[in-house]
Write a structure and sequence with these properties.
Belongs to the cytochrome P450 family. Residues 1-24 are annotated as: Disordered. InterPro entries: Cyt_P450_B, Cyt_P450_CS, Cyt_P450_sf. The structure is a single chain. 48% of the residues lie in helices and 9% in strands. With 423 residues, the protein is α+β, with helices and mostly antiparallel strands. The strands form three sheets. It has a five-stranded mixed sheet. Strands 4-10-9 form a three-stranded antiparallel sheet. Strands 6-7 form a two-stranded antiparallel sheet.
Length: 423
């Protein structure tokens, strides 16, 4: 690839001089780092995913649309990744669970992608949104009731990380214990560190056991929907389709809930508009997507031909990372002060093109319900530590706070059943 321009931010560099993508995501102000990179490189910057493993970070809004919409040039199939094929990437690398090829919709292009995408679209279309909203609201109320009398809580680990996983686990017919086991495995998987492959194995084994149990004893849940879908031809495809739905849905919704709550607790202007009714919850959710999309960076596309993008020479087999957060901050589409454009949904938080997120509606439903319930039940919540003390889970891809300690008026809030009655 290229020689890095001088002046790469020192606090996010690997030893070789290139910016480290995990360090960028975990920096106190990644938007500032993306802007520095854009000044040095333009809209396509070279970064390291781990020492010695290079990739192109696509930070331009228009450039990101180009690679997501031109699958004949930029493939989603990791079997085209030159560094993996040539052994630059170790088969034991923590990157493999997120970036290696799987027999699912994420790793396919063209007609094969459309075949594997249809079960996801069909499964989501069959969801009873009213029932899901009621169940999520009851779950959120139950979680808040567990800590409301204490007057304090960690809104990430006691709330935002639990809501999506237990909601998704319920949809797929798993109990709360299995849901929490899946959550532990997923945190390791998305971290892309030394325990990533072990987390991936645990995650898949729990779901494989569920698939096999549903084949013996079908029930009215999403697992059975995938088992019975004619487009899925074998157990591996059924398993991987469920892996996509749960893994992508959990981590991204966790991030979305966390960042919306964080904005409420750290940005007085944002909180005043929200509490004063000048900013609706959906507008708040979209502002969170603009500022910190659930997937700050999305792996990956692989060049099928030598080409040019954003003034950079891209070789066949090069890896390109979709820089959603950087593209949302592209000054060509969102100049400084654009936060005034409440309700604008032209962000790239859900990507674009054939691989655009299929679960935007349920993701918004779960996130909106979680945020609205917290607003209703904890109206005076406030951050319990200085905002600059917040830290981030290690990951090149997602930016989720390690913790979000909050305080509020202690009160007894009874848990509710999904039907609305107290218990």
């Amino acid at each position: 690839m290229s020689t890095p321009p001088p002046g790469c931010p020192a606090h996010v560099r690997h030893g070789g001089g290139l910016p480290s993508l995990p360090a960028v995501v975990g920096s106190p102000d990644p938007r500032a780092v993306y802007r520095e990179l854009r000044e040095q490189w333009g809209n396509v910057a070279e970064v390291e995913l781990e020492p010695g493993v290079r990739a192109w970070l696509v930070m331009g809004y228009r450039e990101l649309l180009t690679i997501t919409r031109q699958e004949q040039i930029f493939s989603r199939d990791a079997r085209n990744w030159r560094d993996l094929n040539e052994g630059v990437v170790s088969p034991h690398s923590g990157l493999i669970p997120m970036m290696g090829w799987r027999a699912n919709v994420i790793g396919a292009d063209g007609p094969e992608h459309r075949r594997l995408r249809k079960p996801l679209d069909d499964g989501i279309a069959r969801m009873d949104q009213r029932r899901v909203r009621r169940e999520v609201e009851a779950l959120c109320t139950e979680l808040i009731s567990a800590f409301s009398e204490r007057g304090s809580a960690d809104l990430v680990n006691e709330y935002a990380t639990i809501v999506p996983m237990l909601s998704l686990a319920s949809l797929f017919g798993l109990d709360s214990t299995e849901g929490r086991e899946l959550l532990d495995a997923l945190i390791a998987l998305f971290g892309s560190a030394d325990d990533s492959q072990a987390g991936n194995r645990d995650f898949e084994q729990i779901l494989l056991d569920t698939v096999r149990e549903r084949r013996r004893n079908p029930t009215d849940d999403m697992t059975t929907v995938f088992i019975d879908h004619p487009n899925l031809h074998n157990e591996a495809e059924r398993l991987q389709s469920i892996v996509v739905m749960i893994s992508a849905g959990n981590e991204t919704v966790t991030a979305w809930i966390s960042h919306t709550l964080r904005l409420m607790l750290t940005d007085p202007r944002f909180a005043a508009r929200l509490h004063g009714g000048r900013l609706g919850v959906d507008d708040a959710l979209d502002e969170a997507l603009w500022r910190d999309p659930p997937m700050n960076n999305m792996p990956a596309r692989y060049a099928l031909h030598d080409t040019e993008l954003g003034g950079r020479y891209i070789r066949r087999g090069d890896c390109l990372i979709l820089g959603h957060a950087a593209a949302n901050d592209d000054p060509d589409v969102r100049p400084d002060g654009a936060e005034e454009g409440w309700g604008n949904r032209s962000h790239l938080a859900f990507s674009s093109g054939p691989h655009v997120c299929p679960a935007q509606v349920p993701a918004r439903l779960i996130t909106r319900t979680a945020v609205q319930t917290a607003l209703n039940l904890l109206p005076d919540m406030r951050l319990a530590v200085p905002a600059e003390q917040l830290a981030w889970r290690p990951s090149p891809w997602t930016r989720v706070p390690v913790a979000l300690p909050a305080e509020f008026s202690a009160a007894r809030i009874p848990a509710r059943t999904p039907g609305g009655a107290g218990r």
